[in-house]
Amino acid sequence: MDRKVAREFRHKVDFLIENDAEKDYLYDVLRMYHQTMDVAVLVGDLKLVINEPSRLPLFDAIRPLIPLKHQVEYDQLTPRRSRKLKEVRLDRLHPEGLGLSVRGGLEFGCGLFISHLIKGGQADSVGLQVGDEIVRINGYSISCCTHEEVINLIRTKKTVSIKVRHIGLIPVKSSPDEPLKWQYVDQFVSESGGGRGSLGSPGNRENKEKKVFISLVGSRGLGCSISSGPIQKPGIFISHVKPGSLSAEVGLETGDQIVEVNGIDFSNLDHKEAVNVLKSSRSLTISIVAGAGRELFMTDRERLAEARQRELQRQELLMQKRLAMESNKILLEQQEMERQRRKEIAQKAAEENERYRKEMEQIVEEEEKFKKQWEEDWGSKEQLLLPKTITAEVHPVPLRKPKYQGVEPELEPTDDPDGGTEEQGEQKGKDKKKAKYDSLQDLRKNKKELEFEQKLYKEKEEMLEKEKQLKINRLAQEVRVLPAGQANIPRTQCGRFPCAPRGPAGVVLPKWRTRVE
């Protein structure tokens, strides 16, 4: 890792985070990330420390420390603070209203933020987001406006012009006595969404630099002492505050650094010059950085207590991280169990379908085998004998006329074309009519016999089907009543089982019907 990048990162951490326990926790989180390489866990841990808008630049400072293969995922998980302002216009007289809720104001020590959007409303349709900070309304800056003043400003015009920038954090304050806290948009549920309690993250600290106004009346002095800092930490610091003095009343404490007095910069002044400036006027406007040099004036006992408190805070942060990791682990285990359960259900369903398919194939194969055996055993012997040709007897083939070359010979009236006399021809005609009548009688007889044999064949098929079904039912009853291999079958005197007549394919026939070979 580049030393320059690491040095700049440490400077930014020291500038943005005052609590030493939070600094140690931040470094511990980064060390654990380089062991596990889990970006999601890293971002979740960082949100416990980067818990206010002023610390959001730390996400950008940490990004160079992330390997290139994880930087895209890191950018997706961390909130992106927009630098440019976005301006939208809303119609205040719209039937559904503006479609947004806001919270914050000067009295709460923060800006005005969008905390809720109505889905499909005006604000949602123009692209506003939960976590946007409202910077200007109708051209006026609202950084020094209370909540009520902002609401009144919105009501002054029919068309409201709003300029916002996305922060990704929302201020949370359950009661006036509680300190202001911040929640990320993905962790926040608005009032209309059912509400959710605070996450217990550390509260927002006061601004690092603040101004106090002191007016010296009569002979009363400031009631504080100042001293110069060491070489490694130059500046003018308050070394002692007298209880009940003006300095104590305005909130000055031991360790506060004096930055400016009545417009005079104290960063490059020595102790004597600083004292002269403080005594030069009866009205003082003092800019200080609270607690910037507190460790310079601490006793050994205070340092020990500070170190103990710092370690307790560090352990508390680590405990929160451990609980978050355990919750994440339990959630992953539940998801894995659900995935395995669905996989087993799908596998069992596939096995059941395969078993059913094989059973159906086996049943079809057995039916084909039974049908084939039955045809081999019974089909050739019960084949119906049909008449060869009935049409040939009823309609004989007409005789072909002989072909003559030249002139056809003339026949006498008494001559017959087939030979013989006329009487013989008449006799032949009678015989032919009689033969035709006999053939019709034979045809009717053969037709009746055919219908009878077909009916008999159909009855035989129905009887065989009934016998087959009877055998299947009998076998099913035997399987349900007696275990396999324990059927109580009577034996004959010779010790053998009685033989029953068998039909096609091993079907046992009743006693009244035996197979005749």
From TrEMBL:
<keyword id="KW-0597">Phosphoprotein</keyword>
<feature type="domain" description="PDZ">
    <location>
        <begin position="87"/>
        <end position="155"/>
    </location>
</feature>
<feature type="region of interest" description="Disordered">
    <location>
        <begin position="397"/>
        <end position="440"/>
    </location>
</feature>
<keyword id="KW-0221">Differentiation</keyword>
<comment type="subunit">
    <text>Part of the IMAC/intermicrovillar adhesion complex/intermicrovillar tip-link complex composed of ANKS4B, MYO7B, USH1C, CDHR2 and CDHR5. Part of a complex composed of USH1C, USH1G and MYO7A. Interacts with F-actin. Interacts with USH2A. Interacts with SLC4A7. Interacts (via PDZ1 domain) with the C-terminus of USHBP1. Interacts (via N-terminus and PDZ 2 domain) with CDH23. Interacts with USH1G. Interacts with MYO7B. Interacts with CDHR2 and CDHR5; may mediate their interaction with MYO7B at the microvilli tip. Interacts (via PDZ 1 domain) with ANKS4B. Interacts (via PDZ 1 domain) with DOCK4.</text>
</comment>
<dbReference type="GO" id="GO:0032426">
    <property type="term" value="C:stereocilium tip"/>
</dbReference>
<dbReference type="GO" id="GO:0002093">
    <property type="term" value="P:auditory receptor cell morphogenesis"/>
</dbReference>
<dbReference type="GO" id="GO:0005903">
    <property type="term" value="C:brush border"/>
</dbReference>
<dbReference type="GO" id="GO:0005886">
    <property type="term" value="C:plasma membrane"/>
</dbReference>
<keyword id="KW-1009">Hearing</keyword>
<dbReference type="GO" id="GO:1904970">
    <property type="term" value="P:brush border assembly"/>
</dbReference>
<keyword id="KW-0966">Cell projection</keyword>
<dbReference type="Pfam" id="PF00595">
    <property type="entry name" value="PDZ"/>
</dbReference>
<dbReference type="GO" id="GO:0001917">
    <property type="term" value="C:photoreceptor inner segment"/>
</dbReference>
<protein>
    <recommendedName>
        <fullName>Harmonin</fullName>
    </recommendedName>
</protein>
<dbReference type="GO" id="GO:0005929">
    <property type="term" value="C:cilium"/>
</dbReference>
<dbReference type="GO" id="GO:0005856">
    <property type="term" value="C:cytoskeleton"/>
</dbReference>
<keyword id="KW-0175">Coiled coil</keyword>
<keyword id="KW-0963">Cytoplasm</keyword>
<dbReference type="InterPro" id="IPR030237">
    <property type="entry name" value="Harmonin_N"/>
</dbReference>
<dbReference type="GO" id="GO:0005829">
    <property type="term" value="C:cytosol"/>
</dbReference>
<dbReference type="InterPro" id="IPR036034">
    <property type="entry name" value="PDZ_sf"/>
</dbReference>
<dbReference type="GO" id="GO:0050885">
    <property type="term" value="P:neuromuscular process controlling balance"/>
</dbReference>
<feature type="domain" description="PDZ">
    <location>
        <begin position="211"/>
        <end position="281"/>
    </location>
</feature>
<comment type="function">
    <text>Anchoring/scaffolding protein that is a part of the functional network formed by USH1C, USH1G, CDH23 and MYO7A that mediates mechanotransduction in cochlear hair cells. Required for normal development and maintenance of cochlear hair cell bundles. As part of the intermicrovillar adhesion complex/IMAC plays a role in brush border differentiation, controlling microvilli organization and length. Probably plays a central regulatory role in the assembly of the complex, recruiting CDHR2, CDHR5 and MYO7B to the microvilli tips.</text>
</comment>
<dbReference type="GO" id="GO:0002142">
    <property type="term" value="C:stereocilia ankle link complex"/>
</dbReference>
<dbReference type="GO" id="GO:0005902">
    <property type="term" value="C:microvillus"/>
</dbReference>
<feature type="coiled-coil region">
    <location>
        <begin position="332"/>
        <end position="377"/>
    </location>
</feature>
<dbReference type="GO" id="GO:0007605">
    <property type="term" value="P:sensory perception of sound"/>
</dbReference>
<keyword id="KW-0677">Repeat</keyword>
<dbReference type="GO" id="GO:0046549">
    <property type="term" value="P:retinal cone cell development"/>
</dbReference>
<dbReference type="GO" id="GO:0060122">
    <property type="term" value="P:inner ear receptor cell stereocilium organization"/>
</dbReference>
<dbReference type="InterPro" id="IPR001478">
    <property type="entry name" value="PDZ"/>
</dbReference>
<dbReference type="Pfam" id="PF21219">
    <property type="entry name" value="USH1C_N"/>
</dbReference>
<feature type="compositionally biased region" description="Acidic residues">
    <location>
        <begin position="409"/>
        <end position="424"/>
    </location>
</feature>
<keyword id="KW-0206">Cytoskeleton</keyword>
<dbReference type="GO" id="GO:1904106">
    <property type="term" value="P:protein localization to microvillus"/>
</dbReference>
<dbReference type="InterPro" id="IPR051844">
    <property type="entry name" value="USH2_Complex_Protein"/>
</dbReference>
